[in-house]
From TrEMBL, chains A, B:
Protein name: N5-carboxyaminoimidazole ribonucleotide synthase
Role played: Catalyzes the ATP-dependent conversion of 5-aminoimidazole ribonucleotide (AIR) and HCO(3)- to N5-carboxyaminoimidazole ribonucleotide (N5-CAIR). Catalyzes the ATP-dependent conversion of 5-aminoimidazole ribonucleotide (AIR) and HCO(3)(-) to N5-carboxyaminoimidazole ribonucleotide (N5-CAIR).
One of the protein's GO biological processes: 'de novo' IMP biosynthetic process
Gene3D superfamilies per UniProt: 3.40.50.20, ATP-grasp fold, A domain, ATP-grasp fold, B domain
Broad class of enzyme this protein falls into: ligase
Cleavable signal peptide: none
Length: 384, 384
């Protein structure tokens, strides 16, 4: 198949920042794109050859959009799977496949998939609704503390809570959920696996999520993770196993816990480019978005090694600021060594809204980490 | 000034591959852009917020386009300078300035500028037309061989010829020209200088153009140049001097000769991102297009050092192929280590048309150079 400067068309469901960064790569290779997103102000609005506004969960919309493309992918999991299945049955290539997405989209099914495939994960129970969850608490089948996760719709920390007492159940949403054992862990790690339809597989180096000591929020994504080589090897091998179990095509971001005794447990996966791989744009030989394109188009996968160390900081809207966005002090961080901000293009900021990210690269990881701290202290996402 | 996700608008005259690569950076920072280009199929057609078709040499077109933007730049020298001057007088920021472009656009004026500013360059004479050139030959004021250059309109090797005998003058164009002494040189080098309106200046490492031993055509752009440190220092210092003499703002690519006795002579300059800086997308901490944006918006300049060594190969249309383009064996070069093709998006190939480039990066320059040779042997730009 000839993709470059031809009428071949790649369809992308979702037009947010991940899609936007993917479009840098389709532009670089002059691959024609169609993008579907519910918002007319989506970051992918420009740079796609054709943009369409529409509901990603609507069968007809997704089906009709997909009929006009040669290969269909998504940058968000919340898409209509039945439409993907019908498109596949009619010969459209959908990567990752509808079957893979079925095993991932619902977190209850995803956890059961790990169990069925002997993939280490924290012990859990699935509850069909909040009523069933409450009943299990009353019957003392479920003990505090536990991690509650909504089976669907979770994103960017939404749909996940640590429940320490009965009262904390009250504000949870009504739908199906899982309750997971709260595992004390040393590190939260992630590995991105790339796999193409021909079966070529490559993993990126292990990255580490460094948490704020008090706020318990991810502050920095660090590549490479500051862990033993043996642990890193184990994490990459496990991530590969997960990708193969899912028969996944494209990028799969595998989030994992490193327990106190150096066990690796799979937390959850995202079947697409991922926040934990943004560092790769500046640090890696092949960035995750180019790799995604290579994988879904069955091209040879690129080198996943890093040229330099990378640290990534998310740019989220400051608390108590809502309105037209201002990136305060951005010129100050541009004066720091090896600093690249990425601005997603959302015109309005809201508390904790993901507005962009900043990558800091350096030959010396410790220097990059120090500069990242300066970046975090300096730039503020506020409203006018 | 607040550039990021605001109504601030950057205007770009010219919508070719340089503009296209600049747009990756404006997208990364969500800076609003308007682009003007004569072709409705220009590579910048998408990814700009607003694209306008129009003649870059027409006063009214350029003036009216420029009135709607806050900062105006160009990615090609052939633009209407009078319009730039009028825009400047009305408060639009034009970078590089009209005055700088006046000293560069006409090669006769550019050479005289070097002479006036004690910038070493090969000896030359300016002739107001071909008649005057012929007269100088007849009067034996001008001796063979010499280098003929058209004062205007030269681009990608057009408008330059080595003249070894009287007959070779016949096919030359009629207009004003210069005749330069043919200087035997060891190396052709280039340095990109970035300078912002506040006067901050940075130079990129010296790159080397490696010529095909027989065809006398540039085959590889190599960074860093394989030359002595002292020569490299001298070249960077000279390039800085040239940029300052021009009071240049933005990127200035300074092409130079290293003579047999290690003198450095300025050949010519381009007041914009340049083919010799394409390696920087993959190899440098700050690529030349991001640097251009930083410079013209008076932001702090980024680190010009390289993360890794880089070699660049141009992708030009194969001889005797005209028509819809096919990048033959592109999947083979994608399997080679550290190889990134860039496809400019021209749908039709013609003999020697610049259709894209390929960058090869590696920690080891010699390895990158070897892989570049493989790339050159493998990929072919042909028609269907």
């Amino acid at each position: 198949m000839n993709y470059f400067s031809t009428s071949f068309t790649l369809g992308i469901l979702g037009g947010g920042q991940l899609g936007k960064m993917m479009l840098y790569e389709t532009r670089k290779w002059d691959i024609k794109t169609h993008v579907l997103d519910p918002s007319n102000e989506a970051p992918c609005r420009i740079a796609a050859d054709h943009f369409q506004q529409g509901n990603l969960m609507d069968f007809e919309t997704v089906y009709n959009f997909g009929k006009k493309v040669d290969v269909l992918t998504f940058e968000i999991e919340g898409v209509n799977i039945e439409a993907l299945e019908k498109l596949e049955s009619e010969g459209i290539k959908v990567y990752p496949s509808a079957a893979t997405l079925r095993n991932i989209q619902d977190k209850g099914i995803q956890k059961q998939f790990y169990k069925d495939h002997q993939i280490p994960t924290s012990p859990f129970k699935v509850y069909k609704d909040k009523y069933a969850l409450n009943e299990a608490i009353v019957r003392k089948e479920l003990h505090f503390p536990f991690v509650w996760k909504s089976c669907t719709g979770g994103y960017d920390g939404k749909g996940v809570s640590i429940i320490r007492e009965a009262e904390e159940v009250i504000p949870l949403s009504e739908g199906a959920c899982i309750a997971e054992k709260l595992i004390p862990f040393k590190n939260e790690l992630a590995v991105i696996v790339a796999r193409n339809p021909s079966g070529e597989v490559k993993t990126y180096p292990v990255v580490e999520m460094e948490f704020h000591p008090e706020a318990n929020q991810v502050e920095y994504v660090i590549c490479p993770a500051r862990i033993d080589d043996a642990v890193a090897e184990k994490a990459r091998a496990l991530a590969t196993k997960v990708s193969e179990a899912f028969k996944h095509v494209g990028l799969l971001a595998v989030e994992m816990f490193q327990t106190e005794d150096d066990e690796i447990l799979v937390n959850e996966v995202a079947p697409r480019p991922h926040n934990s791989g943004h560092y790769s744009i500046e640090a890696s030989y092949t960035n995750q978005f180019e790799q995604q394109i290579r994988a879904i188009l069955d091209l040879p996968l690129g080198n996943t090694d890093s040229k330099v160390a990378g640290v990534m900081v998310n740019l989220v809207g400051a608390e108590s600021h809502t309105g037209p966005v201002v990136y305060k002090n951005i010129e100050k961080i541009l004066a720091m060594e090896g600093v690249t901000p990425h601005i997603y293009g959302k015109k309005e900021t809201r508390p904790f809204r993901k507005m962009g990210h900043v990558t800091i690269v350096n030959k010396d990881l410790n220097k990059a980490r120090k500069i990242a701290e300066e970046v975090k202290k300096t730039i503020k996402v506020v409203s006018k």
